[in-house]
């Protein structure tokens, strides 16, 4: 019976609830979570209250630092950009000056230098040579007649004093002598004319220069109406005939320096304006500026080229390109005004160069102009200007 009672007591002990020690271990974690939530709430709500209580004057301490400069005024050279066609400064068309005939030889090729008077091509002259020989024989006959008439006149003068010949006969012999001399001159003139005509059969260069084109070939029949057989670039002088707008033309003058760059070439050539068109095209509102260039094989007449022409100078503020902003309304810059607040200033820009962009209108040069970060500013924003010395 005691055995049964002990078994029952053991079962009752096994049925009792577990001790409460593990439940007590959860309290430190709960307290820690409450502390974290309290700290987070203070940062979220307490920080905003402190910011709301911060004085308004503290905003300046948070203003961005922006680089500004006082540009002043500098002498700016105006550069006019233009495009045009390369051409011979003096393009001489060469044709036949004589009566013409069949070309027998062509002595030059395009790209060859020639001297003034040099024969470029010859024309058959077989018939003209015979005509000249005939006229030369006539000159000889006329001279013989002149010699005979002079001899008869000399004999008559010795006889007139003796009374064998009258003075009338002497005068007739003098007239005969003079007529013979006149026939000699006429024959000589005809011979000289024939020789001159024969000389004009040769096609010659009217001046020294470079042969540009050739349309003459051996066997070709030519005459005064055959047109241009050769084209000559006189003295190798080249020019650029550039079209310039009416407004830009007013700032150019004869003697202005220019830099010419042929299309497809990385070389530039120095030139000088030697002529400005006295008229403006009514349709395009442009005039032609002729820029003289020294001969170079890269400057081919008929080619296309661009030119940068140095025009008049002006005194204006000069700013880097980073300072110039633009939108669909205008071109503008930001200047620092009262209380270091930025203001938008509309400007008119001129030529851009390696030194910067010229501001023709809108600035007098004494303003503090924002050089960089202008795109991130708004009108009225307070900044901390960092002044940079103007170049």
From TrEMBL:
One of its GO terms (cellular component) is efflux pump complex. The keyword Transmembrane helix applies. Residues 319-383 form the YknX-like C-terminal permuted SH3-like domain. InterPro entries: Beta-barrel_RND_2, BSH_CzcB-like, RND_pump_MFP, YknX-like_C. The chain crosses the membrane at residues 27-45. It comes from the Bacteria. Residues 100-226 form the CzcB-like barrel-sandwich hybrid domain. Coiled coil: none annotated. Residues 240-312 form the CusB-like beta-barrel domain. Keywords: Membrane, Transmembrane, Transmembrane helix. GO terms for molecular function: efflux transmembrane transporter activity. Belongs to the membrane fusion protein (MFP) (TC 8.A.1) family. This is Efflux RND transporter periplasmic adaptor subunit.
């Amino acid at each position: 019976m005691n055995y049964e009672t002990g078994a029952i007591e053991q079962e009752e002990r096994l049925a009792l609830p577990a001790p409460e020690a593990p439940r007590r271990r959860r309290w430190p974690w709960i307290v820690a979570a409450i502390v974290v939530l309290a700290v987070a709430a203070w940062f979220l709500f307490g920080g905003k209250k402190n910011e709301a209580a911060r004085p308004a004057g503290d905003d300046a301490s948070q203003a961005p630092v922006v680089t500004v400069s006082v540009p002043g005024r500098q002498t700016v050279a105006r550069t006019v950009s233009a495009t045009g066609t390369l051409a011979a400064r003096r393009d001489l068309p060469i044709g036949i000056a004589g009566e013409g005939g069949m070309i027998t030889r062509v002595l030059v090729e395009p790209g060859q230098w020639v001297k003034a008077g040099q024969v470029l091509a010859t024309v058959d002259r077989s018939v003209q040579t015979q005509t000249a020989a005939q006229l030369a024989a006539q000159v000889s006959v006329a001279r013989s007649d002149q010699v005979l008439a002079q001899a008869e006149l000399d004999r008559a003068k010795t006889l007139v004093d003796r009374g064998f010949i009258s003075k009338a006969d002497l005068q007739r012999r003098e007239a005969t002598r003079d007529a013979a001399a006149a026939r000699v001159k006429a024959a000589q003139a005809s011979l000289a004319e024939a020789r001159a005509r024969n000389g004009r059969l040769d096609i010659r260069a009217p001046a020294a220069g470079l042969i540009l084109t050739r349309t003459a070939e051996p066997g070709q029949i030519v005459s005064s109406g055959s047109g241009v057989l050769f084209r000559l670039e006189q003295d190798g002088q080249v020019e650029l005939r550039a079209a310039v707008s009416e407004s830009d033309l007013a700032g150019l003058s004869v003697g202005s320096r220019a830099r010419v760059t042929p299309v497809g070439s990385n070389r530039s050539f120095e030139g000088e304006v030697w002529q400005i068109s006295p008229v403006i095209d009514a349709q395009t509102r442009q005039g032609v500026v002729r820029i003289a260039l020294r001969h170079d094989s890269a400057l081919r007449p008929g080619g296309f080229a661009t030119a940068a022409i140095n025009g008049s100078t002006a005194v204006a503020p000069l700013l880097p390109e980073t300072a110039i902003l633009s939108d669909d309304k205008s071109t503008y810059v930001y200047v620092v005004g009262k209380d270091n607040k930025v203001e938008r200033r509309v400007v008119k820009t001129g030529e851009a160069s390696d030194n910067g962009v010229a501001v023709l209108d809108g600035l007098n040069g004494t303003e503090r102009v924002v050089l960089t970060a202008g795109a991130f500013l708004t009108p009225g924003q307070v900044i901390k200007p960092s002044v940079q010395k103007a170049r």
